[in-house]
Amino acid sequence: MKRLILLVLAALPCLTAYAASPFLTAFMINEAIKAGDTEYLERKIEWPAVRQSLRESLSPMTVAQVEQGSGPNAKPGLWARIKASFGRSAVNQFVDRYVTPTGLPTVFNYGVTYRRLRGDADPPRTLANLTERMRAAWGRTKRAEFLSPTLVEIEMQSKATPNRHYVSRLELQSFEWRLVSLRVKLVAQTDERVRTAELEAAR
């Protein structure tokens, strides 16, 4: 029994690191987009599969709903304005052109410029606020589960549009996690309010 306990204690750090590693990879992919780290993005994302999953998730109904935004008082984001202006065909072209290692950082910078002009730009990313940024990202995570020992699905709320969620799948390939799917999911505002109230009540 003593030997078994020692083995469990010895394995615990490895199991913890294994469980946390896909979520850290997802966070680092987001950071790489912001930093324009194309080499990291090229290595960590299965681009053809991600583009295909995005196109499939953006059905005509989804496009129409996203164009409407989250409500009458909501400020339209860059993604919604692009779709409202050009429609479904242009969305597919946009995915093909910008869902790439160099394209995603470009789109992110467009958004940064727009928010800066609007007066609500995010604070600069520094080592000092890394923990706060990781905490904020975890706070927007609505669901995370292992579908298998080598496949994880993470559902995260959009920072700009709360009723829009991004569902990503990461697969363990050659001892490293890679993003293999990304879908857009819309959540009813009432569902989101109930979920927020439940979280507040649990604190």
Task: Outline the structure in words.
The chain is α+β, with helices and mostly antiparallel strands and about 200 residues long. The chain has one domain (about 20-200). Helices cover about 60% and strands about 20% of the residues. It has 8 helices and 4 strands; from the N terminus they run αααααααββββα. The chain has helices at about 1-35, 40-45, 45-55, 60-70, 80-100, 105-120, 130-140, 190-200, and strands at about 140-150, 150-155, 165-175, 175-185. Strands 1-2-3-4 form a 4-stranded antiparallel sheet. β1 and β2 form a beta hairpin. α1 (about 1-35) crosses α2 (about 40-45), α1 packs across α6 and α4 packs antiparallel against α5. The radius of gyration is 19 Å and the shape is globular. The model is unreliable at about 195-203 (pLDDT under 50).
Structure described in brief:
Helices cover 60% and strands 18% of the residues. It has 8 helices and 4 strands, in the order αααααααββββα.
Q: What is the strand and helix layout of this fold?
A:
Blueprint: H1 2-35, H2 38-44, H3 47-57, H4 60-68, H5 78-98, H6 103-118, H7 130-139, E1 141-148, E2 151-157, E3 164-173, E4 176-186, H8 189-202
Antiparallel strand pairs: 1-2, 2-3, 3-4
Helix pairs in contact: 1-2, 1-6, 4-5
